[in-house]
C-alpha cells in the first residue's frame, strides 16, 4: 500500500515474545476496512493490504492514520491478521488515530470495533492541556462530570437526579415542562477546559448532545522511520514453501590478469590469472546447502575446463560435470575448447558437505582446467571473468517416498497407533490431530480392525471402506528422519503430504499400492533428523498409524482456531473429473486462502434442497453433518440438482434450511452460493433457481453470491458488487469452442469442474467472500 509523501502516517511496531519464549516469527497483515480514501492534495487513493514480518522478533510497518489530515472518510479501522509460524493465528481490529503517533506498539492496542471505530490504549503519561473550545449548547441532563464554564440555560426538561451544584448561570425564560424525548445522537466532543474540583458522581442521566470539538494540539515531531518496501500486486497462490532466510548470493569479478596462456598441466588444477589470482568465488554455507553456480567468461585454446568444489584446504573435491571426485576426460561439455560444436550452458550445482567448509564457514567454487597445449582465459578490464554463487539452502523434505504392500515395518521401528486400536509389543498410541472430521471408528476383520475412518458425514456409519467418510486430514509432530505410514489400500485412495506447512504437491496424488484391501506401508524419507510438523490430506484412505525409527518421538500439534465447512453437492464433494474427490475441490483451496487449516467437506454428490439423490436432502443431513460440528464459517452451495423441480418447493426448502442453520449456529458466519451453471448460456431453469435462492437468502438475512452473474449481495439483499459470470462460453474439455473459459474449466461430462476449474473457483469464491466481509 504505497503512500504519497507528506501524509500522516504511524509506524506500528511489535516486539512480543513467541509463546515458546523466543522471538516471534511470521507475518502480520494490516487490512484497511475501507476500499478507498480521498485526499484534497493527492486525490483518490486505493487502499490495499500492508504486510509486515517479524525480523529477529521485531515488526515495523508504516500505515496511514485513520484520521490523517485532508483525508476522508475518517474513523475507519485496520483488521490485523497475525500469522506467526508454529503458533496460533489471530485477527482483530485496531484504530490508528494520528494522536497515537508517530510510533505505536501493537501490543498496547486493545481490539477495536470495526463498526464504531472505538479503541483503547494502555495509558501513558498525560500530555499538556489544549486550549478550551467553544461551549456547546446545554441539552438534557447527562452524567455529572468535572465542572466547566456555565452555559446559557435552555428550556427546562424533566428533572434528573440532583448532582453537585455548579456555579449558577443566567436564568432563561421558563417554558412548560414537556415529556422527555429520546436522547439525540452525540455530537463531536469539545476540548476540555481547565478542570475544577471533582464532586461526587451522581446517577447517570440520559446523554445530551456534545459540544463542538476544539482545535487539536500540535503533533510532536516524528521519529526516524526505516525504509518501507513497495507492496506489489497479489499474484495467484503457488505451492506453499517453508519460511526462512532469502537466497544468499556472492559474486567474484576478476580483472587483474593479462591475456596469457593457462599454465600447462596434464592433471586438473585451478585456473589463475597472470598475477596468480585464482579464478574462484566463496560463499557462506552449511552442510547440506545447495550452491548454484553461474559462470561468465571468454576463453580460447585447447584446454579442457570444468567447475570444481574445493575442500576446506583448497584442493579439488568434486567436479561439476561428473558430480564426483573424478573429472570427465574432457571436462564440462559446455566448456569444450572448440567452436566446431554447438554448446548449451547452464548453471552448475553442488551440495556442500562438512569437509568443504572452512573454519570461517565459507565454501569455494573454482574454475579448474587441464591441458598442455595453448589455452587462454580472459580476466582483464576489457574482458572480465565473473562467477555468481547462490546458496539455496538445503533441499526441502521429503527427499523420497515409496509404497510397498506389507504390514511389517523396518526392523526396530515403533508403531504409533490411532486411539482405540489394540496395542501389542512395543506399540504406543499416537497423539494424532484429526482435521475435517470426527467420530473415528475401527473396522472389523483383518486388516481393517487396525484401521480407523471417521463417521461425521452422512450416512454417519463406519460401513464399508468405500462408503465411510472419505475426506479428512491428520497431523503430528516428529523429529524422525524417516517414517512409515500404515494404511489399507483402496483403488481410489489419494493423499497430499505437507511438511512444515509446505505442500509436497498441489494436487492430491494416488496413494499407490498393489492389492486393494491389503495393508501397505508408505516410507517417507525426510533427510536429516530435526523437528517437523507432518500433515496428510486423505481421500478414501483407512488409516492404521505411523511407524517411527528407534529414538524418534511424536507429539501433538497445536489446535488452531476456526473451522471452515462446505455443505452441498458434487461441486464440493468432487467427481470423476477432478483428482482426489472432495479433497481436491474448491473447498480445501478456499479454506487455505482464508487461512483455515481445518476444512470440513460435508457435501454429498447428487443431493440438493429438494433432491435426495443416493443419500438425503440438505435438510435431512444438516443437523448431524453441519450443526453438530459447529463450523466457524459455513458455505451452502447447492441447487443444480434441483433446478428441474418446482421453484416454490425449492424456495420453501431453502427457507426452512436457512432458518434451521441460523437457529443451530447463531455464532457462525454463513454464506449462500446460488445455482451452478457449467455454461455461459444457462438454461432458464438454472437462472430461475438462482433467483429463487437469492430471494430466500435475503429473507433469511444471509449473504448471497451468484455464480451466473458474479453478483454479491449482503445479508439485506442489497447488491454490493458484480464480478462477472464465473463460467463463460459453451465448450468443455474435449469439445472446445474457443469462446470462453469453459473450454478449460468444465470437464468432459459437461457439468463438473476440472482440477484447473476448482483452483479457479476457489479464487472466485475467495474474492466474493472478501467483497462481502473483508476478513
Q: What is the number of beta strands?
A: 45
Radius of gyration: 34 Å
The percent of residues in helical segments reads under 10%
Q: N- to C-terminal separation?
A: 17 Å
Low-confidence stretches: 116-211, 225-245
Annotation field: number of helices: 7
Largest sheet: 7 strands, antiparallel
Oligomeric form of this entry? Answer: single chain
Beta-strand percentage? Answer: 25-35%
Structural class: mainly beta
What is the average of the pLDDT values?
83
- What global shape is seen? globular
Summarize the topology:
Layout: E1 9-14, E2 26-32, E3 36-39, E4 43-46, E5 50-54, E6 59-64, E7 71-72, E8 78-84, E9 90-94, E10 103-105, E11 109-110, E12 120-121, E13 248-256, E14 265-270, E15 280-284, E16 289-296, E17 299-301, E18 304-310, E19 316-319, E20 348-351, E21 362-371, E22 375-377, E23 380-394, E24 400-404, E25 414-417, E26 428-429, E27 433-435, E28 441-442, E29 452-453, E30 471-478, E31 482-488, E32 494-499, E33 502-503, E34 509-510, E35 519-525, E36 532-539, E37 543-548, E38 554-555, E39 564-568, H1 570-573, H2 586-593, E40 599-601, H3 618-626, E41 633-637, H4 647-664, E42 669-673, H5 684-699, E43 704-705, E44 711-713, E45 719-722, H6 742-745, H7 755-772
Parallel strand pairs: 1-10, 25-26, 39-40, 39-41, 41-42, 42-43
Antiparallel strand pairs: 1-6, 2-5, 2-8, 3-4, 3-7, 8-9, 11-12, 13-23, 14-21, 15-21, 16-20, 16-23, 17-22, 18-19, 18-21, 24-35, 25-37, 27-30, 28-29, 30-36, 30-38, 31-35, 31-37, 32-33, 32-34, 32-36, 43-44, 44-45
Amino acid at each position: 500500500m504505497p503512500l504519497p509523501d507528506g501524509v500522516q502516517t504511524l509506524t506500528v511496531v511489535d516486539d512480543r515474545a513467541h509463546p515458546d519464549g523466543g522471538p516471534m516469527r511470521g507475518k502480520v497483515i494490516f487490512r484497511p476496512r475501507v476500499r478507498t480514501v480521498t485526499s484534497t492534495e493527492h486525490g483518490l487513493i486505493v487502499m490495499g493490504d500492508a504486510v509486515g514480518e517479524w525480523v529477529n522478533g521485531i515488526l515495523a510497518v508504516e500505515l496511514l492514520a485513520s484520521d490523517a489530515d485532508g483525508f476522508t472518510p475518517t474513523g475507519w479501522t485496520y483488521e490485523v491478521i497475525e500469522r506467526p509460524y508454529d503458533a496460533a493465528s489471530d485477527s482483530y481490529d485496531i484504530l490508528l488515530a494520528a494522536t497515537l503517533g508517530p510510533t505505536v506498539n501493537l501490543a498496547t492496542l486493545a481490539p477495536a470495533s470495526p463498526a464504531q471505530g472505538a479503541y483503547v490504549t494502555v495509558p501513558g503519561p498525560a500530555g499538556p492541556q489544549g486550549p478550551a473550545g467553544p461551549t456547546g449548547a446545554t441539552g438534557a441532563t447527562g452524567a455529572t462530570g468535572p465542572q466547566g464554564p456555565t452555559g446559557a440555560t435552555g428550556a427546562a426538561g424533566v428533572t434528573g437526579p440532583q448532582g453537585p451544584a455548579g456555579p449558577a448561570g443566567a436564568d432563561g425564560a421558563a417554558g412548560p415542562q414537556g415529556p422527555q424525548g429520546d436522547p439525540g445522537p452525540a455530537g463531536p466532543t469539545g476540548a476540555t477546559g481547565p478542570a475544577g474540583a471533582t464532586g461526587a458522581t451522581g446517577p447517570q442521566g440520559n446523554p445530551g448532545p456534545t459540544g463542538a470539538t476544539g482545535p487539536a494540539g500540535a503533533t510532536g515531531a516524528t521519529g526516524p522511520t526505516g525504509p518501507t518496501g513497495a507492496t506489489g500486486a497479489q499474484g495467484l497462490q503457488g505451492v506453499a514453501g517453508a519460511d526462512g532466510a532469502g537466497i544468499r548470493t556472492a559474486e567474484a569479478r576478476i580483472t587483474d590478469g593479462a591475456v596469457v596462456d593457462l599454465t600447462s598441466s596434464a592433471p586438473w588444477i585451478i585456473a589463475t590469472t597472470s598475477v596468480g589470482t585464482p579464478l574462484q568465488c566463496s560463499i557462506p554455507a552449511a552442510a547440506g546447502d545447495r550452491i548454484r553456480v553461474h559462470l561468465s567468461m571468454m576463453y580460447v585454446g585447447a584446454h579442457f575446463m570444468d567447475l570444481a568444489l574445493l575442500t576446506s584446504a583448497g584442493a579439488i573435491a568434486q567436479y561439476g560435470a561428473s558430480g564426483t571426485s573424478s573429472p570427465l576426460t574432457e571436462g564440462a561439455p559446455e566448456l569444450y575448447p572448440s567452436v566446431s560444436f554447438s554448446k548449451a550452458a547452464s548453471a552448475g550445482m553442488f551440495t556442500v558437505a562438512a569437509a568443504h567448509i572452512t573454519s570461517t564457514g565459507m565454501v569455494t567454487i573454482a574454475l579448474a582446467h587441464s591441458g598442455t597445449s595453448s589455452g587462454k582465459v580472459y580476466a582483464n578490464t576489457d574482458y572480465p571473468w565473473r562467477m555468481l554463487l547462490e546458496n539455496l539452502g538445503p533441499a526441502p523434505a521429503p527427499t523420497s517416498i515409496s509404497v510397498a504392500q506389507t504390514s511389517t515395518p523396518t526392523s526396530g521401528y515403533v508403531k504409533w497407533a490411532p486411539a482405540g486400536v489394540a496395542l501389542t509389543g512395543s506399540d504406543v498410541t499416537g497423539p494424532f490431530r484429526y482435521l475435517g472430521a470426527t467420530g473415528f471408528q475401527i473396522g472389523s476383520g483383518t486388516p481393517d480392525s487396525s484401521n480407523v475412518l471417521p463417521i461425521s458425514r452422512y450416512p454417519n456409519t463406519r460401513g464399508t471402506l468405500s462408503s465411510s467418510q472419505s475426506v479428512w486430514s491428520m497431523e503430528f509432530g516428529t523429529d524422525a528422519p524417516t517414517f512409515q505410514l500404515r494404511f489399507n489400500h483402496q483403488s481410489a485412495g489419494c493423499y497430499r503430504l505437507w511438511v512444515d506447512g509446505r505442500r509436497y504437491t498441489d494436487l492430491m496424488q494416488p496413494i499407490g499400492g498393489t492389492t486393494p484391501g491389503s495393508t501397505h506401508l508408505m516410507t517417507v524419507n525426510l533427510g536429516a533428523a530435526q523437528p517437523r510438523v507432518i500433515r496428510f490430506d486423505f481421500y478414501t484412505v483407512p488409516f492404521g498409524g505411523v511407524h517411527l525409527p528407534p529414538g524418534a518421538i511424536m507429539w501433538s500439534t497445536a489446535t488452531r482456531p476456526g473451522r471452515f465447512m462446505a455443505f452441498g453437492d458434487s461441486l464440493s464433494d468432487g467427481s470423476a473429473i477432478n483428482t482426489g474427490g472432495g479433497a481436491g475441490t474448491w473447498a480445501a483451496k478456499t479454506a487455505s486462502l482464508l487461512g483455515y487449516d481445518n476444512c470440513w467437506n460435508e457435501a454429498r454428490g447428487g443431493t440438493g434442497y429438494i433432491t435426495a439423490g443416493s443419500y438425503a436432502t440438505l435438510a435431512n443431513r444438516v443437523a448431524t453433518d453441519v450443526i453438530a460440528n459447529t463450523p466457524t464459517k459455513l458455505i451452502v452451495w447447492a441447487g443444480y440438482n434441483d433446478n428441474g423441480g418446482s421453484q416454490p418447493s425449492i424456495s420453501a426448502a431453502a427457507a426452512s434450511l436457512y432458518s434451521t442453520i441460523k437457529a443451530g449456529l447463531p455464532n457462525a458466519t454463513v454464506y449462500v452460493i446460488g445455482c451452478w451453471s457449467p455454461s455461459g448460456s444457462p438454461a432458464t431453469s438454472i437462472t430461475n433457481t438462482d433467483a429463487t435462492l437469492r430471494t430466500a437468502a435475503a429473507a433469511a438475512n444471509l449473504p448471497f453470491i451468484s455464480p451466473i452473474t458474479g453478483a454479491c449481495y449482503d445479508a439485506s439483499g442489497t447488491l454490493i458488487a458484480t464480478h462477472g459470470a464465473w463460467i463463460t462460453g459453451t465448450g468443455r474439455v474435449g469439445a472446445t469452442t474457443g469462446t470462453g473459459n469453459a473450454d478449460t474449466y468444465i470437464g468432459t461430462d459437461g457439468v463438473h469442474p476440472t482440477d484447473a476449474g476448482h483452483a479457479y473457483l476457489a479464487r472466485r469464491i475467495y474474492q466474493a467472500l472478501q467483497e462481502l466481509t473483508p476478513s
